[in-house]
Amino acid sequence: MNIDIEQDNLKQGVLGLVLALVEIIRDLLKTQAVRRMENGSLNAEEVERLGKSLMEFDRVVEQIKEDNGVTEAVRSVRDSLDNLVEGVLGGDLHGR
């Protein structure tokens, strides 16, 4: 049995999945950054540099999603992954 997959749909699906995973990693990095700030393990200069880096990272990811028309695909993957994790762990992950 042959499966007919359109190249554009495959590209959007794979890119959507990759960017959703990148967003999840970004969220984890932000959480870790907040913990480090709250623990006082970062000085003011490091906090400033980290904040700027995370903002630039966000800008680049959003630009990639927009340029490739995968914003909805990423949102769909994130929602599906969030629902899966919520089902396994319980709790609400939509507070992102």
Count of extended strands: 0
Element-level helix/strand string? HHH
What global shape is seen? flat
Helix- and strand-based class? Answer: mainly alpha
- How many helices? 3
Which whole number gives the mean pLDDT?
A: 87
pLDDT < 50 runs, ≥5 residues: none
> Radius of gyration, rounded?
17 Å
**What about the largest sheet?**
none
Helical fraction equals over 70%
* Percent of sequence in beta strands: under 5%
Report how far apart the termini are.
Answer: 41 Å
Describe the structure in your own words:
The protein has three helices and no strands. With 96 residues, the chain is an all-alpha fold. The radius of gyration is 17 Å and the shape is flat. Keywords: Gas vesicle. It comes from Geotalea uraniireducens (strain Rf4) (Geobacter uraniireducens).
Descriptive key words:
GvpK, gas vesicle, 96 residues, 0% strand, 3 helices, flat, mainly alpha
Give a brief description.
The chain is mainly alpha-helical. It has a domain at 25-88.
